[in-house]
């Protein structure tokens, strides 16, 4: 954990831990599915409706999302219902990465603040 | 019932600023300066005053709103202060009444050919990966934003 966080992924993401999630979300169709599921549970066929793809392809995408831990699914009779796995989205790794990102932004703003302060000091010297 | 968990994590952030160590250090000691650069558009103020008693044993407190609209609170204690060189403090973060983390932060300030190198090291105990349903949408939006950045850098 320490090494992964210290090595730091882009934007402060712990690269190794979130690789599967990133892979799952790298596909625009799967992103649409995740966005749809963030509104509430849906069946596999409901998920496929806005997408121009076969049911078999939709099932494959659902399997990738499920393997990443982003979603869960449950079969009742003939219908497979999918739901978002909120724990995966607000996992410890994700909010620690969020904390890191917050401090990255703060330290960037500290740089802006120091640059502004230096500029003001220069102006004061020019116009005493 | 809250599921209990502890995640111990250390993260390190380095920055180099074209300014003297004294100027960089001063930005951490002065409440007016710190308010400017600590302020984050995603973590809005809720009007809680920013308190900074910058001395060993002194406290620092502020609060505001998380991206999901819930309130957060920051409470720090300073342990070690070496002017222009080092600051060590601990801080707690609360989301509402839940303590989210307790961290030890070390800020090292070292002169560098380009000005000053700052190393921020946070060693934290992150408690009970708090999951609030209202945070889901924000969590997804945040994840997708990071994905976009990640993919842009991969190219």
Overview of the structural elements:
The complex is a heterodimer of chains A (128) and B (155). Chain A has 128 residues and is mainly alpha-helical. Chain A has a single domain (2-126), classed as Winged helix-like DNA-binding domain superfamily/Winged helix DNA-binding domain (Arc Repressor Mutant, subunit A). Helices cover 66% and strands 11% of the residues of chain A. Chain A has 7 helices and 3 strands. Chain A has helices at residues 2-7, 15-25, 28-37, 44-48, 55-68, 86-89, 92-126, and strands spanning 42-43, 71-76, 79-84. A 3-stranded antiparallel beta sheet of chain A has the order 1-3-2. In chain A, helix 2 (15-25) runs antiparallel to helix 5 (55-68). The longest helix of chain A is centred in the last third of the chain and has 35 residues, at 92-126. Mean pLDDT of chain A is 77; it is low at 1-17. By secondary structure, chain B is of the alpha+beta class. Chain B has one domain: 2-Layer Sandwich (Alpha-D-Glucose-1,6-Bisphosphate, Chain A, domain 4). Chain B is built from 3 helices and 8 strands. Chain B has helices at residues 21-29, 31-38, 136-154, and strands at residues 6-17, 44-45, 51-52, 59-65, 71-82, 86-95, 98-112, 115-127. The longest helix of chain B has 19 residues, at 136-154. Chain B starts with 5 loop residues before the first strand and ends with a helix. Residues 131-137 of chain B have low confidence and may be disordered. Chains A and B meet through helix 1, helix 2, helix 3, helix 6 and helix 7 of A and strand 1, helix 1, helix 2, strand 8 and helix 3 of B.
């Amino acid at each position: 954990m320490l090494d992964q966080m210290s090595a730091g992924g882009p934007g402060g993401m712990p690269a190794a831990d979130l690789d599967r999630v990133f892979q799952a979300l790298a596909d625009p169709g799967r992103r649409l599915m995740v966005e749809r599921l963030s509104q509430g549970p849906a069946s596999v066929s409901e998920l496929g409706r806005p997408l121009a793809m076969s049911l078999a392809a939709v099932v494959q995408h659902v399997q990738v999302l499920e393997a990443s831990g982003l979603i869960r699914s449950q079969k009742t009779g003939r219908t497979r219902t999918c739901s978002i796995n909120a724990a995966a989205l607000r996992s410890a790794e994700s909010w620690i990465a969020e904390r890191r990102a917050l401090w990255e932004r703060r330290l960037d703003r500290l740089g802006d603040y120091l640059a502004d302060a230096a500029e003001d000091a220069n102006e004061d010297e020019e116009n005493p | 019932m809250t599921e209990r968990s502890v995640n111990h994590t250390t993260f390190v952030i380095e920055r180099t600023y074209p300014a003297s160590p004294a100027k960089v250090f001063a930005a951490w000691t002065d409440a007016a300066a710190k308010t400017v650069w600590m302020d984050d558009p995603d973590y809005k103020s809720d009007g809680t005053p920013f308190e900074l008693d910058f001395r060993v044993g002194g406290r620092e407190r502020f609060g505001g709103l998380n991206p999901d609209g819930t309130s957060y609170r920051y409470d720090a204690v300073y342990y070690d202060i070496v002017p222009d060189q080092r600051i060590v403090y601990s801080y707690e973060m609360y989301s509402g009444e839940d303590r989210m983390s307790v961290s030890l932060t070390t800020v090292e300030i070292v002169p560098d050919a380009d000005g000053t190198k700052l190393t921020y090291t946070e060693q934290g105990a992150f408690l009970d990966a708090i999951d609030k349903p209202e945070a889901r949408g924000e969590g997804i939006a945040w994840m997708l934003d990071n994905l976009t950045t990640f993919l842009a850098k991969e190219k």
